[in-house]
């Protein structure tokens, strides 16, 4: 009996040890990364119901909590909404209509997968439908860059960015059009089928009805709004594909001195009951946002959305982004800031945050990424900076040149958690970080977080699966846009897939990242 107990205890200890890749404690709450649980992909040249390439979809995801089922045979089924950003844009922006895709998913955990005996892909996607986004008057929105000056006006809305273009917006002639430009990066699926979508141009948060018609917009405080020559200027200096050949910047000055940096808008979006949180990718330009070494202090806004048609600005906090050493950069260019691409509220003011390096992965000149994490931050002790001291156009929370945080501001607590790049886990599913530039090399841009309970119910045992999809930048040699009439082959020569990873984790006791099911 004694011996048996010993054996059992030892056996359990071995199992327990094997099920911990890493642990963190954040303000007294424990998080465990148990193991990588899955890998899957949507081919980079898959097309949607309109004939357009399905790309960029890891910009954000939403897992429908109420469609998630654990089957008796050990598989899971669910519904995943995936948000592309502004379309194929590695050679300039195009008149791609922003949209969201819906997929059925089938996931079968393979806990016995090992490096020596890896599992094949175990997450499968079945495409269902696409909802395109339209302005309040039914005009399609666009992925084209915003104009350097001017805006669109709709009753009941703040000034909205405008993109003016001639012809079809793919380089063919025709009359002049004006559309609302959107570079989508965050999604919330509401119980009534409507969506909150955060964007990089404004940076704004938009609300769309289930058919994709805009029904609301949140404009952040002036400190976030890009300003050039003293007026609002929503351009991201992202020239069009057809004008960009040798044309250089499409706005002067290229960098707006205040407000969100170009293409550094609202990457992080999440909700907690009746509160919506939205986080800048990195610092605003008046507070260090123009440098990879100084863009550390990112602003987080909290809105009360009890009345969804009338969001109320409630609080504002500062999140300190992590630092990493880029082995390809000289010492004076290190450490760099790992900008963030998504957040997800876990419980009681603790959030997941996806922070990462850039320029490393499939299709990049470097294949080894050194920082690609889902970490945790906590706002319990952070200073609420909402108000006139920090929210005006020229107001800053950190120094402009060095990005040093002003005294009197306590930022959120930041805790390191899931490292995507642990090869002893990735290799269990035949994928890798670093090494050969092949289709099993992880993509550069991981930008989404979704979470569902392992028990298929409400997660009473605090065990959860975390899904993350990558943004492949629509990089394929077999690309289609504009209903299939515009074809392209990315100049890089690469074909990237829309890759997906699933992590199995243990959350702090009684975390309830979702409301109870119906
Ligand atoms: C968190 O983990 C530490 C170390 O394993 C342990 O001492 C502590 O009791 C745990 N805290 C909670 C709240 O579970
Ligand atoms: C479980 O059943 C579903 C639905 O029939 C099927 O798609 C899936 O492949 C099955 N999983 C296993 C492990 O057999
Ligand atoms: C800002 O002013 C400069 C100099 O007058 C001008 O060239 C540029 O077009 C202006 N930019 C915007 C966005 O108005
Ligand atoms: C605001 O910032 C701009 C750009 O740095 C600067 O030119 C301007 O003088 C500032 N205005 C005030 C009132 O500080
Ligand atoms: C575990 O996390 C710590 C920091 O929290 C980090 O230093 C270490 O490299 C991590 N290990 C793995 C295998 O991710």
Automatic annotation (TrEMBL):
List the transmembrane segments: none
Signal peptide stretch: 1-18
Instruction: Could you list this entry's UniProt keywords, alphabetically sorted.
Output: Signal
A Pfam family for this UniProt protein?
Phytase-like
Instruction: Name the source's superkingdom.
Output: Eukaryota
- UniProt domain Phytase-like: residue ranges: 78-387
Stored InterPro entries = Phytase-like_dom (IPR027372)
Which protein is depicted?
Phytase-like domain-containing protein
Which species does this protein come from?
Hyphodiscus hymeniophilus
């Amino acid at each position: 009996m004694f011996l048996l107990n010993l054996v059992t205890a030892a056996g359990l200890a071995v199992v327990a040890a094997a099920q911990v890749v890493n642990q963190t404690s954040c303000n007294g709450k424990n998080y465990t990364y148990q193991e990588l649980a899955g890998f899957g992909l949507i081919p980079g040249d898959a097309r949607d119901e309109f004939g357009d390439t399905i790309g960029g979809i890891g910009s954000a995801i939403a897992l429908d909590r109420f469609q998630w089922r654990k089957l008796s045979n050990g598989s899971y089924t669910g519904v995943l909404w995936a948000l592309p950003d502004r379309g194929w844009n590695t050679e300039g922006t195009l008149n791609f209509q922003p949209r969201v895709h819906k997929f059925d998913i089938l996931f079968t955990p393979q806990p016995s997968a090992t490096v020596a005996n890896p599992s094949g892909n175990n997450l499968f996607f079945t495409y269902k439908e696409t909802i395109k986004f339209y302005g309040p008057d039914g005009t399609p929105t666009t992925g084209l860059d915003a104009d350097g000056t001017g805006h669109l006006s709709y009753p009941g809305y703040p000034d909205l960015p405008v993109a003016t273009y001639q012809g079809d917006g793919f380089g063919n002639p025709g009359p002049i059009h004006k559309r609302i430009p959107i570079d989508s990066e965050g999604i919330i699926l509401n119980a009534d089928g409507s969506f909150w979508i955060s964007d990089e141009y404004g940076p704004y948060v938009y609300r769309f009805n289930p058919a994709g018609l805009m029904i609301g917009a949140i404009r952040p405080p002036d400190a976030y709004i890009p300003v050039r020559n003293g007026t609002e200027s929503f351009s991201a200096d992202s020239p069009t594909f057809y004008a960009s050949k040798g044309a250089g910047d499409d706005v002067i000055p290229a960098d707006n001195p205040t407000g969100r940096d170009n293409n550094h808008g609202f990457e992080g979006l999440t909700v907690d009951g009746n509160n919506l949180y939205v986080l800048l990718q990195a610092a605003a330009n008046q507070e260090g946002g123009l440098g990879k070494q100084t863009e550390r202090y990112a602003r987080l806004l909290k809105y009360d959305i009890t009345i969804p048609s009338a969001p109320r600005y409630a609080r504002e906090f500062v999140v300190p982004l992590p630092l990493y050493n880029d082995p390809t950069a000289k010492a004076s260019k290190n450490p760099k800031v790992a900008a963030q691409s998504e957040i997800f509220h876990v419980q009681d003011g603790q959030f997941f945050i996806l922070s990462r390096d850039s320029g490393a992965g499939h299709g990049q000149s470097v294949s080894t990424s050194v920082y690609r994490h889902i970490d945790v931050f906590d706002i319990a002790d952070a200073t609420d900076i909402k108000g006139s001291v920090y929210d005006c156009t020229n107001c800053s929370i950190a120094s402009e040149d060095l990005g040093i945080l002003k005294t009197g501001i306590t930022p959120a607590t930041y805790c390191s958690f899931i490292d995507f790049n642990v090869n002893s886990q990735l290799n269990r599913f035949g994928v890798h970080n670093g090494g050969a530039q092949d289709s099993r090399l992880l993509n550069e841009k991981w930008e989404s977080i979704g979470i569902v309970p392992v028990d298929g119910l409400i997660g009473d045992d605090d065990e959860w699966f975390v899904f993350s999809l990558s943004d492949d930048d629509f990089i394929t040699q077999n690309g289609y846009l504009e209903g299939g009439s515009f074809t392209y082959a990315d100049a890089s020569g690469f074909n990237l897939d829309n890759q997906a990873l699933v992590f199995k984790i243990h959350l702090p006791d009684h975390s309830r990242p979702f409301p109870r099911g119906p």
